[in-house]
């Protein structure tokens, strides 16, 4: 039984795949938050290194991965592709279920794939300190790990709700030498303004982004770094899908269904963009690609495709994306990494062009799937990753009805070892199945910035 499909270290891809080269419709440009005119590279230089700005706008199909970055990737890459034989058996499905496992990285998720690259380019350009936000703590700990390897400082603004729920993520960041504060914090103007209005707010990613951007813009030696959403972040994650395709080739499989959870969209982009390329190229035209969102924060499934700010304070450029509105504060669900109001512009474009589908699921059914998966396959998944597992199981059950032996692959984006308190809540029956009310979404969407 071929359960674990491994590549050699020298098979780590040498290039990232840039899907901008293959888009049917080019991306709409980011707009300046005040002038509402397209943002040029120079506008971004106060907070990003030049090479990442170049990658953000680059139209080349492939971009070389620096040797130093590949060297660090070898700490955990190539990541394994597993066939979930035991899960298939329990489901009595004719479908074949594969999953790429990104939980083998030191911080335990896919996020260091881009954290390492971003820290590297910042270091190369003489930056000494990076400010960032984190939701559930996976991004903050990934960037702490990455900056530490390059001898840089790191300040993390962590969404208060998660900061209180997940003390161990904070300690991980500290272990890797970073400073982590709950957001909103008294350390920035945007944080102080929100605290004055609502001292007990659980915070949101949008608020934490405002704080980190402000920090970077007001310190000379400091840049800002984002763990998802932006084009260069999606780019760096494509290493996942490229490896997965080689691994599927090794066992003579072609994917019929590709599934990943979607918060800001980067792990979805990472697994699926190489498959979207096959769909565009006609190599695998019928492959179904699905982003899975929480019903509490369904940007693609129920949001609007429009220009919006990336943060609450309106400091970031306006991005054309599926959004629930930048002042949307999603309820404190247990998949903190999926609580973002918008969706990566690249993923949004492909969703609008009907190359990527989306669906949304509730917390309790997600944890049903997580526990079933853990009992069958051993790995305890992050609640974020379990969104993909839920839909993979549902698709496998559909195959059982139709008798089709489809090949399903999903991204098991991280382990859930720091999320066990949410498992505790699930076992205690205290998880609430929250669906964001349509009126509140409409209310928030009314406040979208006007673009002429
Ligand atoms: C952050 C995170 C996600 C969601 O973020 P994306 O930007 O959508 O990738 C999913 N899974 C895990 C384990 C995460 O840490």
What are the key terms here?
42% helix; 15 strands; single chain; Rossmann fold; alpha/beta; 452 residues; seven-stranded mixed β-sheet; four-stranded parallel β-sheet; 18 helices
Structure in a nutshell:
Pfam families: PALP. By secondary structure, the protein is α/β, with parallel strands linked by helices.
Describe this structure in words.
This protein is an alpha/beta fold and 452 residues long. It has a domain at 3-8 and 66-108 and 232-445: Rossmann fold. The chain is built from 18 helices and 15 strands. The chain has helices at residues 41-44, 50-57, 67-73, 85-91, 112-124, 138-149, 160-165, 167-175, 189-197, 205-218, 231-250, 266-281, 299-302, 345-352, 363-377, 383-402, 420-427, 438-445; strands at 4-5, 15-17, 62-64, 81-83, 96-101, 129-134, 153-159, 179-183, 222-224, 257-261, 288-294, 304-309, 318-323, 357-361, 407-412. It has a seven-stranded mixed sheet, sandwiched between helices. α6 links the parallel β6 and β7 (153-159). The radius of gyration is 20 Å and the shape is globular. The mean pLDDT is 95. The structure holds pyridoxal-5'-phosphate.
């Amino acid at each position: 039984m071929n359960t674990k499909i491994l590549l050699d270290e020298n098979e780590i891809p040498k290039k990232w795949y840039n899907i901008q080269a293959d888009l049917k419709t080019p991306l709409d440009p980011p707009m300046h938050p005040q002038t509402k005119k397209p943002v040029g590279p120079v506008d971004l230089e106060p907070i990003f290194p030049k090479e990442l700005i170049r990658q953000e706008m680059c139209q080349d199909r492939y971009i070389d991965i620096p040797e130093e970055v590949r060297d660090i990737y070898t700490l955990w890459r190539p990541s394994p592709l597993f066939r979930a034989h035991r899960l298939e058996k329990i489901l009595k499905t004719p479908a074949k279920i594969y999953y790429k496992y990104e939980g083998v990285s030191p911080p335990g998720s896919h996020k260091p794939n881009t954290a390492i690259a971003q820290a590297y380019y910042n270091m190369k350009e003489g930056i000494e300190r990076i400010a960032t936000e984190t939701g559930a703590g996976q991004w903050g700990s990934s960037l702490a790990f990455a900056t530490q390897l390059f001898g840089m400082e790191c300040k993390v603004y962590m969404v208060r709700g998660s900061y209180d729920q997940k003390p161990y993520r904070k300690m991980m960041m500290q272990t890797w030498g970073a400073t982590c504060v709950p957001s909103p914090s008294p350390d920035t103007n945007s944080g102080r303004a929100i605290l004055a209005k609502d001292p007990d707010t659980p915070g949101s990613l949008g608020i934490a982004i405002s704080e980190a951007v402000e920090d970077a813009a007001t310190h000379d030696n400091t840049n800002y770094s984002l763990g998802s959403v932006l084009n260069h972040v999606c780019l760096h994650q494509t290493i996942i899908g490229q490896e997965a395709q080689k691994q599927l080739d090794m066992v003579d499989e072609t994917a019929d269904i590709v599934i990943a959870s979607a918060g800001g969209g980067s792990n979805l982009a990472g697994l699926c963009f190489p498959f979207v390329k096959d769909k565009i190229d006609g190599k695998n035209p019928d492959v179904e690609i699905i982003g899975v969102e929480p019903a509490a924060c369904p940007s693609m499934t129920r949001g609007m495709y429009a220009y919006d700010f990336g943060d609450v304070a309106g400091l970031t450029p306006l991005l054309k994306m599926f959004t629930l509105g930048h002042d949307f504060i999603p309820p404190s669900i247990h998949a903190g990494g999926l609580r973002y109001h918008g969706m990566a512009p690249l993923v949004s474009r492909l969703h609008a062009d009907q190359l990527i589908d989306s669906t949304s699921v509730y917390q309790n059914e997600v944890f049903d799937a997580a526990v079933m998966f853990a009992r069958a396959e051993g790995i305890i998944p992050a609640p974020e990753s379990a969104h993909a597992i839920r839909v993979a199981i549902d698709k496998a059950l559909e195959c059982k009805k139709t008798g089709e032996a489809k090949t399903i692959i999903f991204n098991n984006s991280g382990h859930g070892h720091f999320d066990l308190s949410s498992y505790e809540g699930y076992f205690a029956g205290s998880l609430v199945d929250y669906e964001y009310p349509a009126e509140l979404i409409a209310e928030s969407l009314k406040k979208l910035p006007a673009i002429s």
